[in-house]
């Protein structure tokens, strides 16, 4: 399992960092754990599945 930081997820999805954090707060993108500074870390497979779902629903 590969973990991605907020910044990596934002770059992959093409959205701002703050939006990734909002998705995590709203449990639309579930964090696997947190890093040392308390920022969420995401499972790479979950991020890929979220991107596919979001594109099917009309885009990010």
UniProtKB/TrEMBL annotation:
Domain of life: Bacteria
InterPro entries: DNA-bd_dom_put_sf (IPR009061)
SUPFAM superfamilies: Putative DNA-binding domain
Name assigned to this protein: Helix-turn-helix domain-containing protein
């Amino acid at each position: 399992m590969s973990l991605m930081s907020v910044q990596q997820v934002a770059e992959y999805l093409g959205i701002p960092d703050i939006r990734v954090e909002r998705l995590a707060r709203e449990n639309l993108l579930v964090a696997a754990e947190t890093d040392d500074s308390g920022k969420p870390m995401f499972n790479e497979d979950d991020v890929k599945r979220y991107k596919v779902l979001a594109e099917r629903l009309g885009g990010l």
